[in-house]
Specification:
homotetramer, 277 residues, alpha/beta, Alpha-Beta Plaits, Rossmann fold, seven-stranded mixed sheet, four-stranded antiparallel sheet, 8 helices, 33% helix, 30% strand
Chain lengths: 277, 277, 277, 277
């Protein structure tokens, strides 16, 4: 089935839905599903349509451009598995969760490589016949290490880079190199407990709930647009290690859910927020 | 602001969104928000638009009917507080929650009356200057009692009847008299624990989570279309009374949330399910 | 039934449970329930026992003191409704929730007065025949206002002061005047969104979950020991006002749950945390 | 560290805690943590203590037996990884989750074998160097198949059998062969949707929440004592396959959490319920 996802983001104007739906109608497309949202504060319009049928992509895009404002964002993606590269450091639970989903055929993605600044995950990754690249950061400046990291990434196909407990801070240069392509899981309910050791922070604060947040990576640490969050309950009997262990289940599920939304082209970025249709 | 809600439910056909949006565009309406959903199994189309602007209601409805299938359901409602009647028996927590919201101006509804088969809630209701009707069921057959109940209801304005812990089973005659107008809160996570004493059932089964369900009332007990559900955690230390007490917070929030969705004209009924846009 | 709650907090030592249980046994008490917790990091021991039977309170306390370290905290409380004073400003939902519970007999407390820095809640409170004190802050310094507030509080019996959306910051003098007696509800999932307008902050940050936190009031704003937290899900369609409205249900339930724990003498304070047995 | 877990379940009597703690004290044991619970309806007493120190096991058990009723259940377990056998059919997500935890060293267990009635999981299991036994049910009666299954199980060490999406109903003979040793994950929020295809049932009923339940296996299908439950939210846009996919994350987390409780000797079975200390 020739299924495409059409995403449009633009200023709202009267007749916008009519004008867009007119073009889709005239192209003789089937609309399998259609979601729209207008942010009433900023008057920004978001639309995601799943369309099937035979059509000329260029023709459709040209016609849409003709009726939409110049700065409208139009994205037309064929439904297909996306290539992703996973970056990890040493913890297995997020990476392992994605590897199992990949092996089971439950991930709408091809994991083309796993890259780590340590070598301890090599054995796990290679069980699944996925290339593993070890790019140590030892005795290297942050810039030198990232240069090697970027080179390693570019050896493989990717549409998306997933940080599955990659425990190094990325430089603006890295972020700029892969714009809107880097997805992270942070082990707290952001914006609570930004930075290092969130479980120790949470334990010290005596919270009754801990969480995890998956977000796009931007230049500001732990401040990128949030895609998914979830929580679990804890109490005074939890040491910080218990919180960490309980949190791992949340982290892996949140990362997996956020990745799923991204792979289905459901996530719009707007300012520092996401709109998910 | 002249705000209306337009709800359309019909078989999906190619060009449907185009044809509807064409009419809305030609009426010079502003679409404040627009949600659509197509059930791919049954090909049923649902749309909810919030529209503002000056327009002739009859004209709009006629034009929509012209392009929609004969059996399409079209509903055009002006944004306004709806009149509701609350039925309760003796427990205060759901009724009290609605009375406080009403008093605070946080409920998109006018409570025109509270009717009970007991008189113990009279004192609470009259504090808020809301008419209270006591319709005892004692020494009456179910049919006799319901006749009196229906008469009491019809003394007041209503678009909706809310069962806020009304602990009597309603007959098919009652359901038929107020079609798609009776909203109930059931004190379990349906379909678990249908019928009487769900907290005792839950306690006896040793569940670790209890819940509440708000649903439309139909002729089959506890089987009507579900609008909202929520849960809370319990453990072995909870007696059934503790479960009941913990559940009350869930019940009142679920009923309040479901009522809010109904008052905002967000709930479509489709078969034995709801679509909420 | 002569039911008491015995709470002990002290350094753990070998034989502690044995020595305490020996005394309870020799007093011929029935232990209805017993919970213990040792913080393994700090070696602090917490115990809460519900005991029934005829016994001499002074004798029991003296014997416990004899075997416990000098700085042990021993609390013996007869099960009874506690007197509480509620402070509020203008929002009804938390106050109303407590008033309804009080009216229904579902609160283990007597609300002896409601005090507000505005007069708009007077009408609601007096429906329930509870004294309402209006202590305006207008044209007064913070200190002058608090002096009047403290005087108003002291006119009534109280064991606990509940801030049910009291929107003024309290001074160290106030906190010192009512040590470990002031319970607050904060409208965010602390420590996220400390300070003013947490729902606006949450909306601006684009979070997918909002929450509420009930905590003891200390001199550091929003930093006191957390008693209870809960959350609800939101998405991009929520304006900050929608978040506020959704959050209100969470706030009132969290405050009610925290108050319930305090009224049942289940909450120990230890450093900046709580232990709940 | 010589850490043991002592579990006692018996009728409550006055002085019970005193008598037990006296013995523990006289054995010069350190009590690392201690939890007690009395079911006030049935007067049943439950205690779990984590103890360290040098002591004679037999001596301790004898002394406890001397002071406890004849039918008291006393269990003394050295803290150690337990041997477990996993039964699965064809779905990877629960099995894979346990394999990754095992590989990461995050599971307090040794997986000694995985046994399946299909051979499709062989490849995954053998990546982790764990024995895989294929015991087909084809062309066999239920009894014949179970005989082979039991033989396969008995080839390996086990203290616990985990059904990680094992999709065959077990006979009373199997249950009797491994009493209180078989842990299952059911893909619904029991007791809702007992039996086959719970996600199809949930979809058909139009629920707004789906869940998963981990329980001990007894002779009555899906009726054994519940250890852990959790839920996730769904809405009208979910097909039953979407519900299944969303549910898988819940199932694997619930099974993992329940297994963790069992491996830590925290789960008492009492009638058809569990007490978790």
């Amino acid at each position: 089935m020739n299924e495409h996802r059409l995403l449009i983001q633009t200023n709202d104007t009267q007749g916008l839905v009519y004008n867009i739906s007119k073009i889709l109608f005239e192209q003789n497309l089937n609309i399998e599903s259609n979601s729209e949202y207008v942010d009433n504060e900023t008057n920004e319009f978001f639309m995601r349509s799943v369309i099937t049928g035979e059509f000329a992509q260029k023709d459709l895009l040209r016609k849409l451009k003709d009726i939409l404002p110049v700065n409208a964002i139009i994205q037309l993606t064929k439904k297909a598995k996306k290539d992703i590269i996973i970056l990890a450091t040493k913890e297995m639970y997020c990476l392992g969760d994605l590897l199992i989903k990949h092996e089971a055929g439950d991930l709408d993605a091809n994991i083309t490589a796993v890259i780590s600044n340590r070598d301890s995950l090599k054995n796990l990754v290679e069980k699944f016949n996925i290339p593993f690249e070890y790019v140590t950061h030892e005795e290297l400046s942050r810039e030198e290490h990232e240069d090697l990291l970027i080179k390693a990434i570019k050896k493989y196909d990717y549409e998306l880079i997933v940080l599955a407990k990659y425990m190094r801070i990325l430089t603006p240069n890295f972020v700029k190199t892969f714009p809107k392509q880097v997805l992270n899981i942070h082990h707290s309910f952001l914006p609570a407990f930004i930075g290092a050791n969130p479980y120790k922070q949470a334990h010290s604060r005596g919270v009754k709930i801990i969480g995890a947040t998956s977000h796009w990576v931007t230049n500001v640490l732990d401040e990128g647009p949030i895609i998914a969050q979830d929580i679990t309950r804890v109490d005074h009997t939890y040491s910080w290690e218990d919180m960490r262990d309980a949190g791992r289940n949340v982290e892996k599920v949140v990362l997996s859910n956020a990745l799923d939304l991204v792979l289905k082209d459901k996530v719009f970025v707007y300012g520092n927020k996401t709109v998910i249709l």
